[in-house]
Fold these 4 entries.
Entry 1:
Amino acid sequence: DIQMTQSPSSLSASVGDRVTISCRASQRISIYLNWYQQKPGKAPKVLLYGASNLQRGVPSRFSGSGSETDFTLTITSLQPEDFATYYCQQSFSSPWTFGQGTRVEI
Amino acid sequence: QLRLQESGPGLVKPSETLSLTCAVSGGSITNSHYYWGWIRQPPGKGLEYIGSIFYDGGTFYNPSLKTRVTLSVDTSKNQFSLRLTSVTAADTAVYYCASDYNSVNYYYDYWGQGTLVTVSS
């Protein structure tokens, strides 16, 4: 299985901050990397697919970059509704695997 | 816009079989752009892929669960199902069904609300 490692596991930030979350794959996965946001008690919601493609309806303050083994999710100007847990997920080879999550707190 | 809805017992006894169904509305389960997946999340923990099924019955399973998991699809009812045998307390989790869309790559674009399944006697 491909292992996905996110860093940091949690972070504290303020409204308006720029936030960066990293995701590293244990082997090369091209751009087959997705990012999800999950709020307490809710299902995850896709933010970006194919490493950098913004899902319809997702605000442009979210962006993604990277390829092969190193990926980044960036949130420019953090908003109150962005406080949540973020997961990366690879869909390069089965079984799909998720990172352990990054909790973004106030 | 797809809607997915999980259904099934919320409480299962140890060693018994967990069975869940995901009803799909707003689109056809025979859409060739989609696999249909199950993901679970133990309380307070991260997301774990269980498996995926195509409308023709083709499946992928997580090797860690493969000996206990069976996915099936019913195109006449536009739904797909999960069976997990010989459950233990470690299988207690919120179970999500999701649509796995093939674009640049596969990603879960729609999710059910999730259903908590507790394994306890």
Note: The longest strand of chain A covers residues 19-25.
Entry 2:
Amino acid sequence: AQRVTQPEKLLSVFKGAPVELKCNYSYSGSPELFWYVQYSRQRLQLLLRHISRESIKGFTADLNKGETSFHLKKPFAQEEDSAMYYCALLLSPSNTGKLIFGQGTTLQVKP
Amino acid sequence: DAGITQSPRYKITETGRQVTLMCHQTWSHSYMFWYRQDLGHGLRLIYYSAAADITDKGEVPDGYVVSRSKTENFPLTLESATRSQTSVYFCASSDWEGNSPLHFGNGTRLTVT
């Protein structure tokens, strides 16, 4: 079955501390994975996607096929990073654009 | 992105009533989606549409009906609302060629009493 799991509902860290938001997936094919973010009173928006291998707002995520994971990391958290983060998997066939999302993790960065 | 709008922003309705949530996008995106957001479940896909007059079920379609007579509109109807349909509903659109991301609306918070 195709599934995305984010084991932590809430992650609370202090400003300047490293952050790792966990995401594990179950998928039989070659996965395409994304991280979306929802800041308070804002729309859900794309943060990054694994095929781009980019760093956005200091966040990176590496696809580990052996561990079926796509964890989101940032070396030094900022207060403005406080938000809800969703990991998402593109379902096949990929040209439908259908994403399934994990349960979401709320990141709270304390001053 | 002001290009995708949902209405109403908030809605309270009674069990058994029909209610329609509206979604309008101005980009002429081919793909449109409806998700519901619930604590502990994250976002779950209800229905999606690849183009006008083409719709298909997602993960949780029961109790919902969609239509897409025009590319820009994708209304979601709850034919007989139940308390379990109390949720925040998000519409999204995408021009999926080249792996473009989903663009989300602001959401509709629906309460069924």
Note: Chain B has a mean pLDDT of 92.
Entry 3:
Amino acid sequence: AQSVAQPEDQVNVAEGNPLTVKCTYSVSGNPYLFWYVQYPNRGLQFLLKYITGDNLVKGSYGFEAEFNKSQTSFHLKKPSALVSDSALYFCAVGASGGSYIPTFGRGTSLIVHP
Amino acid sequence: EPEVTQTPSHQVTQMGQEVILRCVPISNHLYFYWYRQILGQKVEFLVSFYNNEISEKSEIFDDQFSVERPDGSNFTLKIRSTKLEDSAMYFCASSEGVRALAEAFFGQGTRLTVV
């Protein structure tokens, strides 16, 4: 069975500093990896995905994520955080040979302080 | 930008009552999904729907749940006899393709509270 772990319930960062939201996964087969963001009272919004190719994936709002096969990780990063980035972030994984329907993590609350 | 819309945003119901959660997927999408998130827990897959039938469902999606696309635009989730543990945020999603290459677009969710 495929699974995702987001080890941090909350990440705090000062505005202007780099941010990282961690995600590790477990699948059989090749992983398809996603990041979604949820702002208050809004649905989940797609940020970026890794299917194949370059390990560094760039997405919306200046976010990027790096696929690391040996560490089975797909951490979300941004070089300079904004207060408006404060939201709930979800990592999700699907797999070729497994269920293509993404399995989500519990989510990490990102708080960016002015 | 096209979006998935869900109604109502919040529903309170008594235990044992039936509820219907409604979703309008993006118009050219062919695949539809329901997920739920119990407070403080992970987002869990319930069911996927394509070509007017369920294509995949999780163990959570038991006989008390059903889905329907009654009129070509709405996609509904019915819970026949609600239990306290059904209290959660329910998300509808749609995508152009079934494979993970096509990212899903999610609605804003319906918060269901069973009392």
Note: The interface with chain B takes residues 4, 32, 34, 36, 41-46, 49, 51, 90, 92, 94, 99-107 of chain A (CB under 8 Å).
Entry 4:
Amino acid sequence: SFVLTQPPSVSVAPGKTARVTCGGNDIGIKSVHWYQQKAGQAPVVVISYDTDRPSGMSERFSGSNSGNTATLTISRVEAGDEADYYCQVWDSSSDHPVFGGGTKLTVL
Amino acid sequence: EVQLVESGGGSVRPGRSLRLSCTASGFTFADYVLTWVRQTPGKGLQWVGFIRPIAYGGTTEYAASVKGRFTISRDDSKGIAFLQMNSLKTEDTALYYCTRTYGVNSPFESWGQGTLVTVSS
């Protein structure tokens, strides 16, 4: 089955840019969705279809996807962005969804 | 407002059964794939299974770890999806979320708050 690999943790200072990567074989040909999960809360979509922001989502969140890596970029990081971030795709060989292991974003 | 509310969680012994419910409101329930995702405390998200809309056969798919033990069903007249969990194992202990999606390649747009299942002797 398709495997997505994320770094366990990323740390960034307030006001800087955070990049969370999601690796997978030829992930660039798939649609990648990103979810933010704050402590004690359910996940929320922050980026869908590689680059689309849901209505109301901050423009500080953006996404890209090419080759074997998809990236979630958070600009001008704020304390409130501290959360776990998960990437997700659909495995075309089975039509089953696959989640990455998650990345804990720490704002220093 | 779209709402998904899970219920039915609790503590059970290994080998026993439990049925979770997901009650939906605020959208046309019949149009969506209803998916169950679980999260072990302190760990990541794991897909459990989903059920397609009746218009697409109402068929189901399951993760290998639960196939043959878990069954998903839906009652579109009441806007409820169910997760019947049989032969529970300690490794099934998790927070179970209900979520909706249009289907393959689509994101999981809305999530419930989850219901906790604890399997322990």
Note: The mean pLDDT of chain A is 97.
